[in-house]
Amino acid sequence: MSNANIELGNHPLSRAYGAISSSVQLLLDHFELDGAMLLERGGYAKAPVSGSVLFAFGRNYGIREADEVRSTIRQRPAHDSREARPPTFVAARALPSLIYLADPGAALWIEVKDNFKIGPIRVMAALSVIPTLPRMPEHQLVLFDPLPADLASSAIASALMGIEPLLAKVIEDSHVAYQRELLTSQVLSEAERDPLTGVLNRFGWERALEAAAVAEPTSQVSVILFDLDNLKLVNDTAGHAAGDGYIRRFAEILSAACRQGDIVARLGGDEFILLAPGMHAAAAREFSHRIEDRLAQDGVYASIGYSTAASPFEIDKLIAQADRLMYANKRYKKSLVSTGAGSL
After folding, report:
1. In b/e form, how buried is each residue of 29-68, taking b as 16+ CB within 10 angstroms?
2. What distances in angstroms separate CA 189 from CA 10, 86, 181, 259, one per listed residue?
3. How far is CA 171 from the centre of its chain?
4. Element (H, E) at 46
5. SS3 string of 184-198?
6. From CA 199, how far away is CA 256, in angstroms rounded?
């Protein structure tokens, strides 16, 4: 679970923030420390502080969630003969998962995405939470203070030992909850998709309408209906595999022509629908003509109808209006075929 691939606002650890924050804040207040960070580590290592910030505690240093963080030695002037060396962390004897700065005199800086630095600071203690769950990353709680602070890391280490079980339990429970939510989301996503075309099915369409109903309203909304022509002919003459390819090609062309935020669904065997927020009537008409020409270039044909309304809209009325225009378009095409003036 990499926090770079999720929205932290929806992450279960975000919801557990209160339990972690209150415990850490008590430590900061008790020892009069300057700040703390909770980091996600790729794996267990007794190494300098480095990782992705999940949350920042204490005073505000401008660190944001998911900022990349690492510690560095401040560059000494050229005339300084002392050799700069990387910060050193060693495991505490009292608790193997607890690490602290071996050289308390080293002037450390916290670098955040190469944009700015916090320091010089002294890392007072860093509690590494080594998870028992497989494939779960290590988390690290880092407590720091300005360099002049004169406080033994061992005293803070003892206090950290008291909150380690709580921190580990909250993080692991959050990880389990996140995995459960992720699995549920994946299953639900698969249930909403038409397996042949990859666009929404009727269930997905209904859920998308629910989301659209609570979204920020736009000035106008258009619905465009599509009913494939010649599908029965393709099935009868070339077989159902060719018919499936005909449907897939239609869905590919339609999806490619849509804008971001448009909703495409397959409502039935040969019937598709497009919900286009912010599209006015003239744009819906132009889109219908353009997509019809594009389909014909690939030998795919569809009867099309559209309707437009101002927000808030009644979807049933929009669909009924588009449906009437679509069937009028289909009847017109059939009349051309019967008189020999055109073909479906």
Report:
1. eebebbbbbbbbbeeeeebbbbbbbbbbbbeebebeebbe
2. 17, 47, 12, 21
3. 20
4. none
5. HHHHHHHHHECCCCC
6. 12
Kindly report whether the peptide bond that precedes residue 312 is cis, defined as omega within 30 degrees of 0. yes
Distance separating alpha carbons of residues 17 and 14, to the nearest angstrom:
5
- The predicted-structure confidence for 47-84, as pLDDT tens digits, reads as follows 566 777 777 777 667 777 777 777 766 544 445 544 44
Beta bridge partners of 127: 98, 141
User: Helix axis angle, 240-257 relative to 231-238, nearest 10°?
Assistant: 140
Q: CA gyration radius for the chain?
A: 30
**Cβ contacts of 159-165, under 8 Å, gap ≥ 24:** 159/27, 159/30, 159/31, 160/27, 160/98, 160/125, 160/127, 161/94, 161/95, 161/98, 163/23, 163/24, 163/27, 163/127, 164/95, 164/97, 164/127, 164/129
Q: Sort 128 into a burial class: Cβ within 10 Å, 0-12 / 13-18 / 19+.
A: buried
Residue-wise pLDDT tens digits, 131-169: 777 777 778 888 888 765 566 667 787 788 788 888 888
User: Any idea which residue has 């406080």 for tokens?
Assistant: 151
Copy the structure tokens of residue 304: 């099309």
* 3-class DSSP assignment, residue 26: helix
User: Structure pTM?
Assistant: 0.52
Round to whole Å and give the CA distance between 328 and 263: 24
Cα atoms in the 13 Å half-sphere on the side-chain side of 200: 16
Alpha-carbon distances of 241 from 139, 193, 294, rounded to whole Å? 51, 20, 23
Among all chains, which residue has been given the structure tokens 């889109």? 287
